[in-house]
């Protein structure tokens, strides 16, 4: 985990790669186009609309050699508010207490109805899922900073709210159907294959893949072969 650095708002921030800008653009776009659906769950007689971020970070970041940007949880809240369909509950979690506290502070300053949970995602996901209203609309943004931080138990925790529909965060089956958006970087897996997976096969297994089948033979192979094997195994796992 990278060290926090001074930010432009007087608080600490994370330094991130340039890809974070595009990632947050997709997040904002989804929240914007779903505002009409979300509006149907907002109001005194409705069950509500929840945003869930299991890897919240500090809520603000700095692009390396670039500008400061909002973190995912802040970007999501602000987009929902600007679109006229603000989330009725913003649930954030992180395994780092300092980052979680910073995110909570930033959200509260913006008027967000925030709840914070400290702990690893596999644990906080179960706690959060257990407290969700089954008749509300819930959007979970799952964006681990690397493969080792992701545990397939996270998906299992929220699976009951999706009515066995996992392929698209936009699909709806009625008031109890909740979308989720999970980002897992294949590039990150391949880039760190030799250094991370040979030593930490348990991380690969926790993410839903069999380390004994992949790690030892492929860690010594070429990059192209590793890529083909990874994509093939990933396709098999999803089928």
Give an overview in words:
This protein is of the alpha/beta class and 239 residues long. It is 43% helix and 16% strand. The chain has eleven helices and nine strands. It has helices at residues 19-33, 35-39, 72-82, 97-109, 121-130, 153-159, 186-191, 193-197, 201-206, 211-219, 223-238, and strands spanning 5-6, 12-16, 49-53, 60-63, 68-70, 89-94, 114-118, 137-142, 180-182. A five-stranded parallel sheet has the order 7-6-3-8-9, with helices on both faces. β8 (137-142), α6 (153-159) and β9 (180-182) form a beta-alpha-beta unit. α5 packs parallel to α6 (153-159). The chain is globular, with a radius of gyration of 18 Å.
Question: How do the helices and strands line up, and which of them pair or pack?
Answer:
Elements: E1 5-6, E2 12-16, H1 19-33, H2 35-39, E3 49-53, E4 60-63, E5 68-70, H3 72-82, E6 89-94, H4 97-109, E7 114-118, H5 121-130, E8 137-142, H6 153-159, E9 180-182, H7 186-191, H8 193-197, H9 201-206, H10 211-219, H11 223-238
Parallel strand pairs: 2-4, 3-6, 3-8, 6-7, 8-9
Antiparallel strand pairs: 1-2, 4-5
Helix pairs in contact: 1-3, 5-6
Keywords summarizing the entry:
five-stranded parallel sheet; alpha/beta; 239 residues; globular; disordered C terminus; 11 helices; four-stranded mixed sheet
Low-confidence stretches are 163-178, 182-186, 195-200, 233-239
Radius of gyration, in Å, reads: 18 Å
Approximate strand percentage: 15-25%
Q: What is the share of helical residues? A: 40-55%
**Strand arrangement across the biggest beta sheet:** 7-6-3-8-9
Largest sheet: 5 strands, parallel
Name the shape in a single word.
globular
Overall pLDDT level: 78
